[in-house]
Design goal:
The complex is a heterodimer of chains A (427) and B (296). Chain A has 427 residues and is an alpha/beta fold. Chain A has 17 helices and 11 strands. Chain B has a single domain, classed as MetI-like fold (Orthogonal Bundle). The chains are: A alpha/beta (427), B mainly alpha (296).
């Protein structure tokens, strides 16, 4: 065989082989953001493929509960996807169950354009010394109200808890949906499981401007301090004796809460930045306004709650790890972030174009008001998850059988938690 | 004395050929998953699904029995099972006797279909409908109670009524199956014995207690064992209707184990499953032994 022919044949073979390799490069990413999340990954993937021909990104969305099981199962059986995507606290649970989430500190170090990431963002992305996610989307949650209902009952957006109470009664009594039946409620909340109740309490407490739900930075139980006790008492009453929520809320989890909101049975509800896109066009058809959580005390500024950070993580046993890390970094670029903002309604960069977004989406994308972030006691106190679980079980008990005196109940619960904390801390 | 039938080697071969596929299927899909589950319960959760799983002995069982939530859950499961078995078997017996009596002459087919239809209805769909019926804001049950000026039913959200609400929904779902078993047994009962007892002056209760019940022992036994197994494993109704609430009151063992499984805590979840399996086997054997005792 002549040398030239050999060389040409060899080159053709190499090209064919590299083409085949490029074609085979598919990165799977598992998330829980539904169709909007798929659209975002698709869009970001297409942009990524411009610099990496032949690479495709395959998003798969699972309901949150199933996402846990599938990710843990896949990691534990060495069949993990290239990337996983979720809220930081969910990735923490994956890490604590499997111990196989990569430390992304050096990966973030390779990103030059990252000044938009705040210290708090990096703090929540770090668990037990490891950066378990690259922060991609700030999770913001505000207080939403059906606009047409407010108009019908002659009210403005409720700014204070007293406003919420008044509007709640009107939403129940004044037939705001005009169907002639007394079938509407003030608020859609959730309280089926401890995790549901944690979520609701966190929103009202942090939204009222307080900085902790159960223990302060030193680890002391604070639920019976007057400011905390006031919010706690009112939320427990809202879920029970006040009757602001559907009576079956004690069995409502995320799915039922969404049914109540989207089915038009309650007028005030949580709005996550990721909800806006859908509710602008479907279900609520844009018939809602978003604002900060209600104010409980004029001395404290109420706020929109930053419920942490959503980010991308790479399992230790992910296939094609190098490429997965490249895509993870790419998700912080302006192009990918713009796609995130337009499809999911959230991002971390501040230099994005928000003009095309609805007023409600802009409320989150270009925040003007006060923002309060979740505290993160589990990263400091190892005993916290157990204490928190006991606390929420106690509260769920009170929702099932409301105490006669809520103040006394809170006091008694605080003491129980102090005793338990001392026991757990001594372990 | 009757001579024993001689089985030829060829007949034995045919017998084995018929039995073998089912024996293999039973071993593969019946016994193997149980053994695998017990094996997983003895390993560390993080490595449980891998070929080189880390053996931790009884650590998962110790963790499960040290968990007060599990002990509560187990206790509630047992109480619920006892109530459900009594209610379902008792109701089915009464319903079958009524269908078998001359009191219902016409419409027997209608009542048979009516009671059996829920058995073939997909349980998920059935329980969703029950959840809507019980809903305290728009449910039909409270709408009716309200129209009749009756006190409202707490349904699934009150600790006082949640167990009753589940028992009713489960009765609707399962009773038809038990009724069919009782009807089959009643069809085999010797009517001459009933007539003889009546001629001897026995009243209805005496006939029921001393003539019918002894003849219905096989059906009572089968139904009780089946119901015990069924209700100890109560799961779907919880997933659809209560999610273990309110305040963990319906967090029965199957559902609790499922929640742990979903969090990747395979070791503890399968340990709970194994404990439940042991309870099911023990309860079934006890019921069988009790039911098989010869009447004094």
């Amino acid at each position: 065989m002549k040398p030239l022919f050999k060389t040409i044949l060899g080159m053709a073979f190499s090209v064919a082989l590299s083409g085949a390799t490029a074609q085979a490069q598919e990165l799977a990413i598992w998330h829980d953001l539904g169709d909007n999340g798929n659209a975002w990954v698709q869009k970001a993937g297409e942009a990524f493929a411009k610099t990496r021909p032949g690479v495709s990104i395959k998003p798969s969305s699972f309901p949150t509960d199933q996402w846990f099981g599938r990710v843990i199962g896949a990691i534990n059986t060495d069949s993990a996807p290239a990337l996983i995507y979720n809220n930081y606290e969910r990735v923490i649970r994956i890490q604590s169950q499997t111990g196989k989430v990569m430390d992304l500190k050096s990966t973030l170090g390779e990103v030059k354009d990252k000044d938009f990431l705040l210290e708090d963002d990096l703090k929540v992305a770090t668990y037990a010394g490891k950066m378990i996610i690259l922060p991609i989307q700030r999770v913001q949650m505000g207080f939403g109200v059906r606009k047409s209902w407010l108009d019908k009952v002659g009210e403005k957006f409720p700014e204070t808890w007293a406003d919420v109470q008044r509007v709640s009664v009107k939403f129940h009594d004044n037939d705001p949906d005009g169907n002639g039946k007394a079938d509407t409620y003030g608020m859609a909340l959730e309280a089926a499981k401890p995790r549901d109740l944690i979520h609701i309490l966190d929103l009202f407490i942090f939204g009222s401007g307080l900085r902790a739900t159960l223990v302060d930075a030193k680890g002391d139980v604070i639920i019976d301090q007057p400011a905390h006790a006031q919010v706690l008492e009112e939320i427990l009453k809202a879920l029970t004796v006040y009757g602001y929520t559907p009576p079956d809320t004690i069995n409502h989890s995320f799915a039922e809460m969404y049914q109540t909101i989207e089915g038009g049975r309650a007028g005030m509800f949580r709005v996550g930045d990721w909800n806006v896109k859908k509710w602008d066009s479907q279900a609520l058809n844009g018939d809602f306004v978003v604002g900060p959580w209600p104010q409980f005390d004029p001395a404290r500024k109420n706020a929109v709650v930053i419920g942490g950070m959503r980010g991308v993580a790479v399992p230790d046993n992910a296939p094609n790890k190098a490429l997965a890390l490249e895509f993870a970094k790419f998700l912080l670029t302006p192009e990918a972030q713009q796609a995130s903002l337009e499809t999911v309604g959230a991002a971390v960069r501040k230099d994005l174009n928000v003009s095309a977004l609805s007023q409600r989406a802009q409320f989150f994308a270009a925040p003007k008001g006060s923002l309060v972030a979740y505290d993160f006691p589990e990263s400091v106190h190892v005993w916290y998850p157990e204490l928190e679980a006991a606390y929420h079980r106690k509260l769920l008990g009170a929702l099932a059988t409301p105490p006669k005196d809520f103040k006394a109940f809170i006091k008694e619960t605080a003491q129980e938690m102090r005793d338990l904390k001392a026991k757990l801390a001594a372990k | 004395m009757q001579a024993q039938l001689a089985i030829t080697p060829q007949q034995r071969l045919i017998f084995l050929a018929y039995v073998a596929p089912f024996a293999v299927l039973t071993l593969l899909f019946g016994l193997w998953p149980i053994l695998l589950s017990v094996k997983v319960s003895l390993t560390a959760s993080a490595s449980a699904l891998k070929p080189d799983a880390v053996f931790v002995g009884l650590a998962n069982y110790r963790a499960v029995f040290a968990d007060p939530l599990f002990l509560d859950s187990l206790q509630r499961t047992l109480v619920y099972t006892i109530l459900a078995v009594i209610l379902n078997v008792g109701f089915a017996l009464g319903y079958a006797l009524l269908l078998n009596s001359p009191l219902i002459d016409k419409g027997k087919t209608f009542f048979k279909i009516a009671i059996f239809l829920p058995v073939v209805t997909p349980d998920l769909a059935g329980y969703v409908v029950w959840r809507f019926l019980y809903d305290r804001s728009f449910g039909a049950i409270n709408a009716l109670a309200s129209a009749l000026d009756l006190p409202l039913f707490g349904g699934l959200s009150s600790p006082n009524t949640v167990t009753l609400a589940l028992l009713i929904a489960e009765l609707w779902r399962h009773a038809g199956f038990y009724v069919i078993i009782f009807l089959a047994n009643l069809a085999l009962c010797d009517k001459a014995l009933v007539e003889a007892a009546a001629l001897d002056g026995a009243n209805r209760w005496q006939i029921f207690r001393h003539v019918l019940i002894p003849q219905l022992r096989p059906a009572i036994l089968i139904n009780s064992i089946y119901a015990l197994i069924q209700f100890l494993k109560t799961f779907t109704v919880i997933v659809v209707m209560t999610k273990g609430g309110p305040a963990d009151l319906t967090n029965y063992v199957s559902y609790y184990a499922y929640q742990l499984f979903d969090q990747g805590r395979y070791g503890e979840a399968t340990a709970m499953g194994s404990v439940l399996f042991a309870c099911v086997v023990a309860a079934a054997l006890a019921a069988y032994a009790l039911g098989n005792r010869r009447p004094q």
